[in-house]
Amino acid sequence: MTFALYIHVPFCLRRxxxxxxxxxxxxxxxxPAYVQALLGELTLRAAQFPAPATSVxxxxxxxxxxxxxxxxxxxxxxxxRQLLADGAEITLEANPGTVDLAALRGLRQAGVNRLSFGxxxxxxxxLRMLGRIHTWDEAVQAVRQARRAGFTNLxxxxxxxxxxxxxxxxxxxxxxxxxxxxxxxxLYALSVEEGTPLAASIAEGTLPxxxxxxxxxxxxxxxxxxxxxxxxxxxxxxxxxxxxAAPEIWALPxxxxxxxxGPVSRHNLSYWRNTPWLGLGAGAHSWLxxxxxxxxLHPRDYIRLVQAGELPEATAEAISxxxxxxxxxxxxxxxxEGVGAARFQARFGVSLxxxxxxxxxxxxxxxxxxxxxxxxxxxxxxxxxxxxxxxAFLPDDEA
Length: 399
Ligand code: SF4
Prior knowledge:
The chain is of the alpha/beta class and 399 residues long. The protein has helices at residues 31-45, 68-80, 101-110, 124-130, 136-148, 167-179, 197-204, 212-228, 266-272, 299-307, 321-332, 341-348, 352-365, 380-384, 386-390, and strands at residues 4-9, 11-12, 24-25, 53-60, 84-94, 114-120, 154-160, 184-189, 231-235, 238-241, 277-280, 285-288, 291-295, 313-318, 339-340, 369-371, 375-378.
């Protein structure tokens, strides 16, 4: 079975203008106590692991602010408890401007085998508007150093649909990013979140509001460019360099499995397939054995609770079978592989057609979904309108 372990690192050097993640600037002095608390939470939760972790993901925040020695301690602690599967994918999110060759070598030696760099843009003016701490040149240097340190599985994140961003600037960002030959790309449309400095700048008129039609054009432009460059789009926001060329945009992966495409994110596949995961750290969420829980948000509260020997949970809810089915559809349809009828039947003991046949046929009639009795997947057009489809699978009281 696949089982994903997430470790949250809630520290950043400063807040980006668009960020509403659970992360804090100015708390780096908490790092040693926080790492100790992560080790403590691992001890408290070791019995909850249903199987050794097939993937580990250090997310944030800025996990590359953790010294490599701490990353090694954490991974060793998981290994020593026999809770790390052989060949596990171990990803760490890194920000250019926070890593050097020595640190990257240390991470590689600690067992990290995949890096996800938050590059966001190749335009320095856009990076400044976003409040990023790095320039494009620093991102290029970080990628080169990662390769020298022995990393081959490199993923780069970009954001599009920025205030004032032109199609030409986005095309240039894509071209320069492809020149870096990443294994994987994640492209996200900017979401302007209430309470962020970016939202305030837009409200004051200092920055123009992003244009959703232009953002849609950018998404399509990226899809074409990445397809031509040999990437498969295997999820609404994610592309992997294929072992072979994709026959078309949003093609069904070989054998119907994303893993057959190339270096996909195996950790994130666990989320999209709605299989169990455990999150450690401040604000981390978990989904295990029919129950979802979330930890307390602030690192100080988190440290205090773990030091007292308590589970640092803030909320927990039981997930009904009906909701689990709906979430399995909602998450699975984000993937080009969609949701297989055999896998659904094996998991829930009831056929996909019996539970969702009418809904699937309705979306198929509207041209947003393929449903052939074996597999349900969004069409290439449905991929652009996914949010309208997903809610249809949730029970009425959750939609
Ligand atoms: S680096 Fe990431 S987590 Fe940190 S402030 Fe910026 S967007 Fe937020």
